[in-house]
């Protein structure tokens, strides 16, 4: 099981790099093609439309070819796309390739998440946040590499680096053995129609929780991707930083996020998932509101780092929390949540690019802060619904005992 977790960590490291590489080199990329932020937003949006497709098809595909083969297909798609990016083809082709990259890292994220939640028997929150830590490491390391490459006028090497990392990870998944988990990851023979188990639907009473959860993930991923991809551009416009300096602000954000993820799982298991998510979402909201109000570089960098710290465990703990509220639907729930996250990651960066072109960075930050306020309201409502369900279950238990 430990080997599986470490391979999950490596896979999340790669998709963390893939998530932010476009944002880290967005300024020189759009400059080299003579484009505006809106076009850059379209590129990011196309990636996340592919992400959405990859996540949605994961349950169906893994049921037919097995989870290992699905993962190999995902990493192969990512490797191919990043390799084609490296050729810097005409912009129309880059936009066409972008969904293939998104398909790859979306499917990888979904299948690894399902495997960890389903196969790890104890301390699921700690296991998920540990793996999410490596997503943060990838998202931290890539901007540092990009800043170094930009400074040395070699930013074009960013895409080949991700391609090589993805290829190595794919080869490891292809050749390694994971003991008893190998049997769980292979393709299962298709049953005849009359032998198939009846598909269990979500209870009617669970639908409000599912709707709120998917909305929360859509807004969260949209906010995080908009923030991390446009943060350098926002800092250049608001504070006058140079391109290489601005690219390193993403590293500040992801660096503190990595630190936070080392402890988030334990804190969430100690405090309770609902309480943890309400507290961290509230703190993250305050950070973004504060960032819209300050204009000093040092204070802005402090708030950016603090934001990374408080948002650290939201995605992983959110997945575990929603599966805790919707027991018995792990694969479907996880895929839906990650898919709606991908939808947010596709739509909101496009809107962010439009705001950056039409208005300014202050309007962009105000929109991101407003998104976090909505997230906080959703999480408070979910916590109230959970408490109501617990009270109802306790009353039913008392009646049955009486």
TrEMBL record:
Q: Does the keyword Transmembrane apply?
A: yes
Describe the location of the Major facilitator superfamily (MFS) profile domain by residue ranges: 4-387
The UniProt entry lists the main location of this chain as membrane
Gene3D superfamilies (UniProt xref):
MFS general substrate transporter like domains
Gene Ontology CC terms, in alphabetical order: plasma membrane
* Protein name, UniProt field: MFS transporter
Kindly list the residue ranges recorded as spanning the membrane.
Answer: 39-58, 70-91, 97-117, 129-151, 157-179, 200-223, 246-264, 276-295, 301-322, 334-351, 363-385
Which family does the UniProt entry place this protein in? Belongs to the major facilitator superfamily.
SUPFAM superfamilies (alphabetical): MFS general substrate transporter (SSF103473)
Q: What domain of life is recorded for the organism?
A: Bacteria
Q: What subcellular compartments does it reside in? A: Cell membrane
Topological type in the membrane: Multi-pass membrane protein
Which keywords fit this entry according to its UniProt record?
Membrane, Transmembrane, Transmembrane helix, Transport
User: What are the protein's GO molecular function terms?
Assistant: transmembrane transporter activity
> Which PROSITE patterns does the entry mention?
MFS (PS50850)
Provide the species name. Paenibacillus roseus
